[in-house]
Amino acid sequence: MTPDTKARGYFARRSRLKWWEGLPWVLAVAAFFVLPDYMAFGTQVLITIIFALSLDLVVGFAGVVTLGHAAYFGVGAYTTGMVSAHLGWTEPISALLLAGFVAAIVGFISGAVLLRYHGLTLLMLTLATAICLQEFANVNEDVTGGFDGLTGVGFEPLLGLFEYDLWGHTYYWYSMAVLFLVFVVVRIMVNSPFGMSLIGIRENSARMDAIGTPVYRRLVTVYGVSAGIAGLAGGLFAESNAYVTLDVLSFARSGTILIILILGGVGRLYGAFAGAVAYLVLEDELAKMSPEFWEFGVGLLLVLTVMFARGGLLGIFDRLRKLFDRAAP
Q1: C-beta separation of 201 from 215 below 8 A
Q2: Cβ of 87: how many Cβ atoms within 10 Å?
Q3: 11 in a domain, yes or no?
Q4: Is 6 a member of any domain?
Q5: Is residue 8 exposed (0-12), middle (13-18) or buried (19+ Cβ within 10 Å)?
Q6: Residue 14: inside a domain, yes or no?
Q7: Hey, what's the torsion of the CAs at 228, 241, 134, 53, to 10 degrees?
Q8: How many CB atoms are closer than 10 A to CB 149?
Q9: Domain count, the chain
Q10: Which of 115, 183, 272, 294 could form a disulfide with 287 if both were Cys (CB 3.0 to 4.6 A apart)?
Q11: Which residues pair with 150 in a beta bridge?
């Protein structure tokens, strides 16, 4: 068997759908019928998963750690909000696509500068990028609403047919459709030769550069794509909440989405699903029990995950599967 044939076989096996990959989607559909009164919360969970997927591309597959990914989430949110509030653009799908496009452009431009640096310098520069954008939005309050937030955001019925109800049913299906399309694109990307090269760059960028891989160009490319997906999440957030505040650009949002990814499992795609559901449900329940000290419970879960489940929540299932495989005759 030639090396080329082996490589083709490996890519085919890696990209092949597994039976369990349908479970998250079945559960998402079932949640609509089992918990119809919680669809507004469910919409925020789906938006968070999209945001976490965008971060997983750069952190989990390319190995670029960032503390400022909320910058692109915020760019998407403000783009959608401002075209509605100031330009009267009320068609939701085109506004969402514009949000992703603008965030991607910002991601490509900023990535071309930021990714020339590495390590702690890169980490601080990504954080500074988000802080600068937040302060820019705060100062230009005539356009962004500043500290008080951007109001007057509203959109016509989805596809001209589906009204937005009080319980968030329409936005739930809308967000799920966007998540599905984003996930398909991301899954194809990470299982392609391009995705394999990103993993190689993550593991040993010097060796990948030595064999002729355009390391810098590929990092900028994936960073821009990741920013565009984050912008889609931000645009959905603005549409579903009908307002935008400075919080969409905050360090807290960047830190939270990184925590979610670590909880679920970095570089696993479905880690974004597990982490978002676990974090947001735990946050909601703990906040009901103790509005003042709920963060202690989340912090404790993160510490336990880092100490005993290095691969995140999905890593626990991997270990259990291996134990069963060893026990099997």
Answers
A1: yes
A2: 9
A3: no
A4: no
A5: exposed
A6: no
A7: -30
A8: 16
A9: 1
A10: 294
A11: 244
Closest CA to 53 of 189, 170, 173: 189
**Which class for 24: exposed (0-12), middle (13-18), buried (19 or more C-beta within 10 A)?**
middle
> Roughly what angle, to the nearest 10 degrees, separates helices 39-56 and 23-34?
160
The partner residues of 244 in beta bridges, in order of sequence, read: 150
Separation in Å, CA 219 to CA 92, 194, 263: 31, 11, 24
Cβ-in-10-Å burial (0-12, 13-18, 19+) of 143 comes to middle
User: What would the two tokens of residue 224 be?
Assistant: 């821009």
Of the candidates 65, 82, 83, which has an alpha carbon nearest to the alpha carbon of residue 226?
65
Helices (H), the chain: 3-15, 23-34, 39-56, 70-85, 92-114, 119-139, 141-144, 169-190, 193-210, 215-241, 251-264, 270-289, 294-308, 312-327
pTM: 0.91
- Pair of tokens at residue 113: 């500068």
Entry field: residues in the chain? 329
Question: Is residue 3, in this structure, part of any structural domain at all?
Answer: no
Give the C-alpha separation, 132 to 110, whole Å.
12
**Per-residue tens of pLDDT for the chain, all 329 residues:** 666 666 566 656 666 777 777 888 899 999 889 988 888 899 999 999 999 999 999 998 998 989 999 999 999 999 999 998 888 888 999 999 999 999 999 999 999 999 999 888 999 999 999 999 999 999 988 888 888 888 878 888 787 777 777 677 888 999 999 999 999 999 999 988 898 999 988 988 888 888 888 999 999 999 999 999 999 999 999 998 888 889 999 888 999 999 999 888 888 888 899 999 999 988 888 888 877 777 888 888 888 887 877 777 887 777 777 776 666 65
Each as own residue / partner, the long-range contacts of residues 34-38 (CB below 8 Å, 24 or more positions apart, any chain) are 36/167, 36/169, 37/167
String of DSSP letters for 117-142? S-HHHHHHHHHHHHHHHHHHHHH-HH
Pick from 222, 212, 291: which is nearest to 64 by CA? 222
Range of the domain at 174: 20-327
- Reference 256, options 278, 289, 223; nearest CA is 278
